[in-house]
User: Which sequence fits this backbone?
């Protein structure tokens, strides 16, 4: 998007014309190698099948090493982010566990209780872009398929049995 807008922006600046404001780009951002999860301090880029991200309305982003840490962050944003509030969230993404491609977290499906262990070798919530792929994974690896809205605080608390406790 920036590459498309850059020529017009430069031309407007050179001609002294006012630059019209555009809607915020809330697309997922590339997770840099040095980026650390605000919840646990791990490096999300090292486990791309587990990565999650929030893009805020100001176009900044927070990246997480797993869906569980994404939900922990959203459950207590004041603890992990002093600059943003829930109302500042523009978009939420998770990586599809199979393809590693970004998908809208609110439309994703999560598998609770599977054999797959997260980045810290503890229970987590592998995410999938479609219900059929999540169901196939659950059939092969165990677990129950949940929609975004079904991942409650109690679900996250139930996953605290591993070393990824907060």
Assistant:
């Amino acid at each position: 998007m920036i590459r498309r807008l850059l020529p017009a922006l430069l031309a407007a600046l050179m001609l002294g014309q006012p630059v019209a404001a555009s809607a915020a780009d809330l697309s997922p951002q590339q997770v840099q190698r040095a980026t650390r999860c605000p919840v646990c301090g791990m490096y999300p880029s090292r486990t791309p099948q587990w990565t999650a991200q929030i893009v805020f309305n100001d176009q900044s982003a927070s990246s997480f090493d797993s869906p569980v840490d994404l939900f922990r962050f959203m459950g207590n944003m004041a603890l992990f982010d002093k600059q943003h509030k829930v109302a500042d969230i523009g978009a939420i993404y998770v990586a599809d566990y199979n393809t590693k491609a970004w998908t809208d977290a609110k439309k994703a499906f999560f598998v609770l209780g599977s054999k797959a262990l997260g980045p810290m070798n503890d229970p987590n919530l592998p995410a999938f872009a479609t219900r059929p792929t999540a169901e196939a994974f659950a059939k092969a690896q165990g677990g129950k398929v949940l929609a975004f809205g079904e991942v409650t605080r109690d679900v996250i608390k139930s996953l605290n049995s591993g070393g990824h406790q907060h």
